[in-house]
Design a protein that fits this description.
Number of domains: 1
Order of helices and strands: EEHHEEEEEEEHH
Strand order of the largest sheet: 1-2-5-6-7-4
Strand content: 25-35%
Length: about 150
């Protein structure tokens, strides 16, 4: 199995962490991870984090609501290489009741490889919605995540 989940959360760090080994197809001919894969890893961490807090993305979609990415950034600091075991941590850094912002950090052996952020809106039936008003369960979970994650920082 090429993906290993690390469900252990360290109390001194916010959010949720996922571990995986860098796969060969994610690298270039020199064995260095292509920059686009870091964004994919952010998504892995984000969806696993939401699942861990009781908000699986599949259930959100089944209710007719989607949460598109409306902005994303990544600061590359070091390169990951083929077969490295990396950890991708995601945590909530902003939630307004309308928009959600998460931050990410990818590490290998304690070395920070990159940091990033993503911002998400909520859409139901092709129209923007505010979980604060229309999805109280989602609003409560995300508010709790923001409070918990910001308290740890």
């Amino acid at each position: 199995m090429d993906r290993m989940m690390d469900r252990e959360n360290h109390s001194d760090q916010p959010g949720h962490s996922v571990s995986l080994k860098v796969r060969y197809y994610e690298t270039d001919q020199m064995g260095i991870v292509h920059h686009s894969n870091y964004i994919r890893w952010f998504e892995v961490a984000r969806t696993d984090y939401l699942r861990a807090v009781g908000l699986p993305y599949r259930e959100l979609e089944a209710s007719g609501t989607i949460s598109p990415v409306i902005g994303i950034s990544c600061d590359y600091l070091q390169s990951a290489r083929y077969d490295d075991e990396i950890a991708i941590r995601a945590w909530v850094t902003g939630y307004t009741g309308v928009r959600l912002q998460l931050s990410y950090e990818v590490t290998c052996d304690g070395v920070v490889l990159c940091r990033g952020k993503s911002e998400h809106a909520f859409v139901h039936g092709g129209r923007p919605v505010a979980p604060k008003r229309t999805l109280p369960h989602v609003h409560q979970i995300l508010s709790d995540c923001l409070m918990r994650d910001s308290r740890v920082m």
